[in-house]
Write a structure and sequence with these properties.
Number of helices: 2
Number of domains: 2
CATH architecture of the largest domain: Sandwich
CATH topology of the largest domain: Jelly Rolls
Helix content: under 10%
Distance between the termini: 69 Å
Number of strands: 13
Largest sheet: 6 strands, antiparallel
CATH superfamily of the largest domain: Galactose-binding domain-like
CATH class of the largest domain: Mainly Beta
Structural class: mainly beta
Order of helices and strands: EEHEEEEEHEEEEEE
């Protein structure tokens, strides 16, 4: 059938949705007019995810956006009343009557922000909501602050690293003024960090990152942390 010039809504049943999906839109040929071709111009194609009573808003962060992420802001205009629950990656960030205009902020402290895919979930606890002008803004900062510390490693200590020990860098965070991504390097080698929280934190190094003699630890990031004390020791693995 020839498609009329109008808006179309196509519903996809849950059984056809997989973890990774590809949506393909195609059309048949023009029939007996073999010299012609079928051309349709589609505008404002949207894929909207609905999960029961919840509205799902996905967004992604690139590697650069994740490294420099400071906060995200969900904004919308609301028509309706009641209690609205909003979660970012399963972590509650808002519960209440949003009013007519609302901005909801979230950051590393409030939510487990992921590199790549992230999901904002909106659920009406009671009442009915009609949201317009829904927008997700991501704020980043490229200002990087770095601090360095040095420590000495003897031949004996280096030999221990090769014989079943690992190095531990333990640092205490007293306060986080601005959250961000903290990068820790030993002699220019990046060390894997699970995330920085208030209190004691640990990262590990091996003989591959260390050298005999003076070693340099560099703390750098786009956030603002008060690191009180740094301790370096070896532990048996």
């Amino acid at each position: 059938n020839i498609a009329d010039k109008r808006s179309y809504t196509v519903f996809i049943e849950p059984q056809y949705v997989k973890e990774t999906n590809s949506l393909e839109i195609s059309c048949d040929g023009p029939g007996w007019r073999f010299w012609a071709s079928s051309v349709y111009i589609l505008r404002d194609v949207k894929v909207i995810l609905e999960y029961g009573p919840a509205k799902i808003l996905p967004f992604t962060l690139t590697d650069e956006e994740y490294r420099t992420f400071t906060k995200g802001v969900l904004s919308f205009r609301n028509y309706g009343t009641g209690v609205l629950n909003i979660e970012v990656n399963g972590q509650p960030v808002f519960r209440g009557d949003p009013g007519e205009e609302r901005e909801i902020e979230f950051d590393f402290l409030k939510s487990p922000i992921n590199l790549g895919s992230n999901i904002i979930t909106l659920v009406a606890e009671n009442g009915t909501f009609e949201l317009e002008r829904v927008k997700i803004d991501v704020y980043t900062s490229v200002e990087t602050v770095s601090k360095t510390r040095t420590f000495e490693l003897t031949d004996e200590h280096y030999a221990m690293l090769k014989e079943g020990y690992r190095g531990v860098i333990e640092y205490d965070v007293n306060e986080t003024e601005k959250q961000g991504l903290l990068v820790i390097k030993l002699n220019g080698n990046s060390l894997e960090s699970p995330g920085t929280r208030k209190g004691p934190n640990q990262v590990y190094f091996t003989w591959n990152e260390a050298v005999v003699g003076q070693n340099k630890i560099e703390f750098s990031g786009t956030g603002n942390w008060y690191i009180d004390e740094v301790r370096i020791f070896l532990e048996k693995v």
